[in-house]
Design goal:
Length: 347
């Protein structure tokens, strides 16, 4: 029985057409992202500062004031726990430490040395956190578990408190989930590109492959998964590019890689579209848009001012009590711990 030659021209033509279409789609999507990063984002920031400069300055000053007072209260809470002090005594100590930073640093070193010495006497490992759970769950498992993917932000924060209690380490913020997954994907793709571009695989580096190498380095630094997929697809093209000489299986594999990059880029675009900078010029043509932002900024400022007053009340109360005649036993019996004072601010 003779062999029948199979005409693959039509199959290859369709495969090449699919590849070119995917390549054009990816280029279009990447140009949208490039416009957002290079034009929309800086343009929107400039418009915001030009239109709402005074409100943004006020909001930034208030936020910094709250941040400073939060730091002070956390320091008081830490000192109260570390040295078994009352709130008022911890407040006095915090003020003294801020006025004498060098002495405070020396005190911290002495405290750390004492803790290390006690752990060694008790047979503990110097680097081990007390009461930490030896069987702490792996963060990869936490981020990938379906229950945690659908968990609300409040539930995530509650779990974070439990995780810290059990392990002695703070759970990364919810926003770390996407960057954590992107880092792993980018690392895997980057390693594949390095193998593809290695001289052992394709011989001496040509100018085109050197350009691909620099592109891959830049994309990996930005953890740009879509750009890495694009580089990977072009690594297999060969110096002559795709054409009638290219095996159909290779064309289809490269097309599949491009489609993965398209999917990743579309997901990123969906996230970017929630940013107010996306296509902002179209929104700013409507005068109601500026009015809406003005109203939101004023509402935000009023809320921050309310929060700031709450912090001021707590600190003012500690300040008054710090200057009263000392009644240490009564202070320890009646004053709530600083953590309870923080709870008052939250609720």
């Amino acid at each position: 029985m003779g062999l029948v030659r199979l005409d693959t021209h039509a199959i290859r033509h369709k495969s090449l057409k699919d590849y070119r279409r995917a390549e054009q789609t990816l280029d279009m999507l990447k140009s949208q992202l490039k416009r957002f990063r290079e034009q929309d984002t800086p343009g929107f920031r400039a418009w915001m500062h030009q239109t709402f400069g005074s409100l943004l300055t006020r909001q930034r000053e208030l936020a910094q004031a709250i941040h400073d007072k939060q730091d002070l209260l956390r320091e008081i809470e830490d000192l109260a726990y570390r040295y078994r002090l009352s709130n008022v005594a911890a407040y006095r100590k915090a003020q003294w430490r801020r006025a004498h930073p060098e002495e405070a640093q020396a005190e911290d070193l002495r405290f750390e040395e004492e803790v290390r010495r006690r752990r060694e006497e008790q047979g503990e490992h110097p680097g081990k956190t007390p009461d930490a759970c030896d069987d702490a769950p792996d963060l990869d498992d936490i981020f990938d578990d379906d229950d945690f993917k659908t968990m609300t932000d409040d539930a995530w924060n509650d779990f974070g408190d439990f995780y810290e209690t059990m392990t002695g380490s703070r759970l990364p913020p919810r926003s770390a989930r996407r960057s954590h997954q992107d880092d792993r994907s980018a690392r895997d793709i980057y390693r594949t590109i390095v193998r593809q571009l290695h001289p052992d695989h394709h011989g001496a580096m040509s100018e085109d492959r050197k350009n691909l190498w620099h592109e891959a380095q830049d994309a990996y630094r930005r953890r740009d998964v879509a750009a890495l997929y694009n580089v990977l697809a072009r690594c297999d093209n060969g110096e002559a590019g795709l054409g009638q000489h290219t095996p159909i299986s290779l064309i289809r594999r490269l097309t599949a890689q491009l489609r993965q990059a398209i999917q990743s880029t579309r997901s990123e675009i969906r996230r970017m579209k929630t940013d107010p900078a996306w296509n902002y010029e179209e929104r700013t043509r409507d005068p109601r848009y500026a009015g809406q932002i003005h109203s939101e900024l004023q509402s935000s400022i009023r809320f921050i001012e309310h929060e700031l007053r709450s912090f001021d009340e707590v600190l003012a109360r500690l300040e008054r009590e710090a200057h009263r005649p000392s009644r240490q036993s009564q202070s320890k019996r009646r004053r709530p711990p600083v953590s309870d004072l923080m709870d008052e601010l939250l609720f």
